[in-house]
Specification:
Length: 687
Amino acid sequence: MTGPIKSIPSVSVSYASNGSSTKANALGMRPMQERAYEKRGEQYLLIKSPPASGKSRALMFIALDKIANQGLKQAIIVVPERSIGGSFADEPLAKHGFWADWQVKPQWNLCNAPGIDEPRVAKSKVKAVGEFLASGDHVLVCTHATFRFALDELGVAAFDDRLIAVDEFHHVSASPDNKLGAHLGELIARDRAHIVAMTGSYFRGDAAPVLAPGDEAKFHAVTYTYYEQLNGYDHLKSLDIGYYFYSGSYVDDILKVLNPDEKTILHIPNVNSRESTRDKIKEAEQIMGALGDWQGADPATGFQLIRRPDGRVLKVADLVDDDSARRDKVITALKNPARKNDRDHVDIIIALGMAKEGFDWIWCEHALTVGYRASLTEIVQIIGRATRDAPGKTKARFTNLIAEPDASEAAVTDAVNDTLKAIAASLLMEQVLAPRFNFTPKNAGPVAGCDYGEGGYREGRTNVGFNEETGQFHIEVKGLVQPKSEEATRICQEDINEVITAFVQDRPTIERGLFDEETVPEELTQVRMGKIVRERYPELSDEDQEAVRQHAVAAFVLTQTAKAAAVTGGDAELHGNTALIDGVRKFAMDVRELDIDLIDRRNPFGEAYAILAKSMNEATLKQVAAAIAKKRVNLPYEEARALALRAREFKNQRGRPPSLTSQDAWEKKMAEGVAALARHHAEAKRG
């Protein structure tokens, strides 16, 4: 071990635990399900809701209504893997107040049928889909793969007048290589089927969007935030998220971050990653060896029994083991419904590719992941393993353990790519888990239900109100552009986190924000974010694009500024579980007027850099920063054009163009943009 694991303060988001998200109405629906059911008449419905919020049952309510009252013939439920099919098993809904039960005949739950989902062995399942379509029965459950093969074989028209419900919808992509996405595009183009899409993470780890913009516009979204879900739990009160750097081999000091007293899911790195020793079996054995002395395996469950120094015996589920018989025994034991509510059933789960999506272990208190994950979706799914509510479980945390790049490596800038992706995921999750922001122009008036603190709402200064029940901030911002169109309003209310996702995933943006000291904040907040908004929403007017940009930047900057207060702990009043909320209030109230120009002048990655500077090897940090700075070349056309447009606004406001000799870095940058654009035009004429 060349260096210790470096502890980085994590950010804690607290929740009221008021029980609201678990209480059911007269029809047996929890709040998210009731919200989705209100839109049951829509042909295309997108449910964006966290793990454990009840998406499966929400679909049951909607599907039964579509078949009984909306003229649809059948419902086909499509899940990514066979194990998730159990979420749509028979459910006695009438017992809880609904007007019908959910029933799936055994022959139509193809997730329980033998055989794997490959073309050469899937013919029987495709045949079964055809037989179901010709039957008078109402519900079929199958995997994404079976559905794709059935569409290939039977054609899109075979699914007319039927509900297609796609669970874990983030598996879909607008990329031409994504077969499921292509098939859904065909179904939408035909416009004869109804589609309900369900996901806890409506973003992907790659550049491809989930849906093409034209198709996405047809969907009516039901959004239930993580804050609403966790705030309404009965037991879980706080969630910590953070990352740690290590050097050498992570297994040497694993107990620095793995607390044997916490119920933990530990995901070890992919065997092809930088963090892996290339021997996953040995890694799992070393982790168990660090925990204590091996006492053998439980013959009934297959769990490894490890005696701790204090005499306590831990039950460890090893899902890394390649022996299929042993692993199947462990999986069966973990899925045993009779032990679901038994906290003592298992203590630690060690996995590699398993125990992520759809895995339900309510007692998990710590999701510990070694190595970066290229997919933000995967990170969200892993965090979701720890966010279940359970008696006595008041705290949960997610930790990402990352290998620090070695400054002596020739390809240090390539190695830092992993770090950037891990930081991007952490930044996104801080945003996803935080309360929702509602921004209005200055002196717009108070919002009902919001607490504006001592003195209440006051004209003439920044007002910050917080509604603890709904988890929503109301913040007044001077100079804020409000959306005009219905679509832009919807984006500002529902899709800001998707915009921020694209922002933090943009490699040039995060590189320059973290490592290029010459970067002016407005290059990121105005130019880079503006480019992302224009590319994502080309159909919006210039004014609406600017409104979306401002709302996204404001939400991201305020969350990061609040995190800074929580991490540094510079103010005693910000300590404790309410740090994130108090930090937002403090930043906004510390200035006489919170205006959009002030927000644009803050580097949104500044707080992440401050953490890096404290935790990463100084030589590595300087070497990476130097390498990033060297990559700066002449401004590309699009960036120069964006700066020139900002320069035009500057001239309209000031009566003069920006100056290349200005002492103001942003004015100088705009002037450079004008000059660069002129060079591009001159070169185009010569060429």
